[in-house]
Amino acid sequence: MVDDVAATCEEQPGTSALRLDYDHESQATSIVEAHSAAVEGWLFTGIVPYMLTRDADALTRPAAFVDYTGSTLLSALVRLQREGQDVTTLSIDTLSPADVAATFTEAGLPIDGLRTLPYRSGMTSAKAVAFHRRGPEHAAITCLSSVHEALRGEMHVLRLAPSPHSVRVALRQLLLTAEGQAQEDAQIALGLIEVESDKGLLREAAALGGTVAAFRGGTHLLVTTRGPLHDATRGFSGLPMLSRLAVHNAVVRVGFGLGRSAAEAESLARRALARARRIGEVAAVLSLRADTDIVLESVPSAGPAQQNLTVIARRVGLSVPTLEKLIDARTAAGGKPLTTREIADRLAVQQRTARRMLHRLELAGLAERTGNLTSGTSGRPLTLYRLTL
User: Fold this and answer.
1) Contact, 323 vs 305, CB < 8 A?
2) Which domain of life is it from (predicted)?
3) Cα 382 to the center of its chain, rounded Å
4) For the chain, which domains are there?
5) How far apart are CA 158 and CA 136, in angstroms?
6) Which helix (H) or strand (E) holds 77?
7) Residue 340 · residue 385 · CB < 8 Å
């Protein structure tokens, strides 16, 4: 089913599909968490994996699911009739009674003999199997592969397969949502930062997916976009960098402005910084359009990497597991520089791959070269890097 849905999606120009299937719907959440950095949107083959993932708060990208009512359900009824089944006495799981009734009514079919088990939070495949087994002999329609596998040896059961039309409708919805999210995430975010020492500022800017430069009057300008700022501040609720900068500075005031243009973002950042000054010596404010100001709490943190690995991964083009291995290597080395060979061995990759990764981190301000070490062979010297993740 995943392959069929993906093939229909790839008929849309410019769309590529990453095929991620599972043995049981309960695996959907872990799959989403493992691949979230590699996708721009999620299209689920049904409502159950979508709801399980949504309820687990694992969706960080736009998401949609293929609706199994309408043409998909009608196609299933036609197939059952061709197989000699009575479509007026069915048990149907996952779909809402209202949607099922509407589809049957449009097809001119009676609904008195139907039994439906709508999806609810906490519904399991075991409950669905028990539901279908009740009552006199009848055919069953399920949206769940696990239910189909459990019942196909004991009753006539049909697993709903989404029609190409239903897939296209869901894809259009997802693409519209993803496009809107991309436009929103691309909004310019400017931060005006007042600190006595700029120690750690470059690292903080990299963790926010941006760059930092001296502005005027001792103020620093941080430039990023809405998406990374939203992720790093936990949905505009906290600012971990505030407490980290306060370790080296008695005064840390940050004003972020979010606008559709650089001029608008700078104007809002000035307003935010002015309010931060009124709050106190350590304060951060985010100003939005429509006179909306959000005070960002100072959230203690073990370090930028622990809070913002997803943001950093997106910025440098490395996976979160790779960054975690690099952090482990840095910790094991006690902060001492590591050679490209040592990094390659830690990551189980070739040295040229390790050099490429380290170069990306260096450009992002998350690694710095400290010299070269002769390898003792005729090969090129080994570059020493200090990781600052």
Assistant:
1) yes
2) Bacteria
3) 36
4) 1-66+165-182 (no CATH), 71-161 (3.40.50.10660), 187-298 (3.30.70.270), 308-387 (1.10.10.10)
5) 17
6) helix 71-82
7) yes
Residue type, 7: A
Name the burial class of residue 323, with classes exposed (0-12), middle (13-18) and buried (19+) by CB atoms within 10 angstroms of its CB.
buried
DSSP three-state, residue 217: coil
Q: Is 316 exposed, middle or buried (0-12, 13-18, 19+ CB in 10 A)?
A: buried
- Coil vs helix vs strand at 66: coil
Say which residue, 184 or 120, is predicted with more confidence: 120
- Closest by CA position to 205, among listed 286, 311, 360, 283: 311
Query: Pairing between strand 63-65 and 367-373?
Result: unpaired
The structure tokens 């500022």 sit at 201
Looking at residues 295-317, what average pLDDT do you find? 60
Tell me: the pLDDT tens digits for 206-241? Answer: 888 889 988 877 799 999 988 888 877 877 877 888
**C-alpha–C-alpha distance, residues 267 and 275, integer Å:** 13
User: Which two structure tokens, joined as six digits, stand for 285?
Assistant: 């404010």
Q: Burial of 74 by CB count in 10 Å (0-12 exposed, 13-18 middle, 19+ buried)?
A: middle
Task: Please state which of the ranges 295-309, 351-365, 375-389 shows the lowest mean pLDDT.
Answer: 295-309
Average per-residue pLDDT for the chain? 85
Global pTM reads 0.49
> What residue type is assigned to position 328 of the chain?
D
Distance (Å, rounded) from C-alpha 194 to C-alpha 269?
Answer: 12
Q: Which of 109, 127, 113, 106 is nearest to 48 (CA)?
A: 127
**Which residues face 386 on adjacent strands?**
368
Give the whole-angstrom CA distance, residue 292 versus residue 89.
56
Tokens in use for 199?
């120690």
End-to-end CA distance of the chain: 41
Segment 37-91, tens digit of pLDDT: 778 899 998 888 888 888 887 887 889 998 888 888 998 999 999 999 999 999 9
Q: Strands, DSSP E only, in the chain?
A: 42-44, 63-65, 90-94, 115-118, 139-142, 157-159, 188-195, 211-214, 219-225, 252-259, 282-288, 292-295, 338-339, 367-373, 382-387
Give residue for tokens 């004991």.
Answer: 154
